Amino acid sequence: MIRRLVLMLLLLASSTVLVCPQETTNAAPLFEIYASTRSVTCLAAEPFLVGTTGGLRAPDGVQLSGLAIRGIAGDWLATDRGLYHRGRRFSNEPASAVAFLPSGLVSGHPRGRVKFWHLVEVVCPTSAPIHSLAWDGERLWAASLEGLWEVTPLGVREITLSKDPLSTTLTALAARDGVVLAGTPCGVYRHRKGEWALLPGAVEISAVGLDSQGQPVVGTAGTGVFVEKDHRLVPLSGSPAEVTAVLSTPEALIVGTPHQGAWLGREGRWIPAYSWKDEVPGNHITALSCAEGALGVGTFEDGLGVLTSSGWEHDLPAAWVNHVACRGDRILVRTSDGSVRSGRPRGSSWQLLGRNAGWPKDWTSALGDGWVGSYSAFYVEEHNRWRVFRPKPELQGVVVTDVARWAHHLWVGSQSGLFQLDPRDGSCRRHLGALSDSWITGVESFDGRLWAGTFSGGLCVGTGQGWTHFRAGTSPLPSDRIHCMLATDRALWVGTPAGLAWTDGERWEHLTAEDGLPSDTVWSLAARGDELWVGTDSGLCRASQRRLTGEGTR
Q1: So what CATH class is 161-248?
Q2: pTM of the predicted structure, to 2 decimals
Q3: In what order do the strands lie in the sheet with 113-116?
């Protein structure tokens, strides 16, 4: 009795009004963000809102483009970059869940942390993020992939759903009017009238919800949507197979998916809630290349997108694209299986390249502007034909990662060092001892010097007389891991897991998500005129090189 009284006093004690900090700036954003809203993370009604990995879809358009939304509670959003309230950032700390109780705001965070914003922070015994918070009218429940807890400002109580070890892996959570649903790989557990019971009929649960009558709506990872009938879960015909979120409204059942946006189900028919095909194909941008009339965009799992003056075209929809090279009116695409395809924007078909193009192998390791890398060889396009280089024994057993021209030689990056090849006589020698790492991720010629990016050793810079090194901590370089590099007439651009760096040969600058990038993790770069295109794991963005380097107004 005393404990309950203390708890009630705590919940009612605070009348503090949370005030959001005002994020105001007179300057236009440095980066224009292109993000996909096809991957749905959460749903809300009144108004109808769709949280996605690329922003919030609202009735008036996409808000917070490029920002992954993890939870919605009224006007509050949990995102990878903090809590937002009515479009303004309230907290910088990444949040994975949010709920608004009668007593105020509660948020879930990494390492099991639950924060009662009017009162105190409580820690659940888990190292995983709290991905869901649910209020049943009396109690707050918190879920992570390592368990389920009843949470109060006084502490937590772990819930045991069953003896099945899979029941401790919570994948989804919902609550309403005294009813709680907990989704796990082994099924859905329902709590009402003080007891937990398994609802048979569905497994591999990925989303749960409750309609206005307290009846369950369940989404799965591969078998669609289920509803309860005669105390058992039964599938809804025609529903999307892979489900990430469910929401039941009087007008329709709304279902979120990982790759096909949100769908409305009404009277046995399913229709898209919105179109995502006028967007970049996915948010994890793995490859970029520019031509005069097209931008080729490769993604992780969501295929290839081509942006032209007519808009977006989606191609190779289920592929993991590692490399893209735009060559005139052609596009070369390398996918994760090592194959290369050639096609044209808005073309009807793609041609596989390999031995039919004169290459010794069909399998490739990389490609770029006018070159293709392979195992023990690389190929350079000259006069619309491919010239094959297979220097032995130097490149035997070597996986080629990049090729650049500098000082009348071809410089070949690989997972086994840097090679210098004279195309006139085919002589080749290896540079290794002077480099900070043998795994070369990129090679560029800039400012009269050769720049080699590495997997874990920063940047190596060659002058022809020797090598110097840029390492994180002892130079302006933000990370020793170099994902990509691009040389333009204005700067050398360097993509890393810690943001985008650039140098004009003397000055260095470092840009991050705080400067407007969708993410600090930069995977790909391309340029066309003054345009700089940056691919991150949270979307694509475009900027003016002049403005970024200080030649325009920032």
Answers
A1: mainly beta
A2: 0.89
A3: 97-101, 104-109, 113-116, 121-123
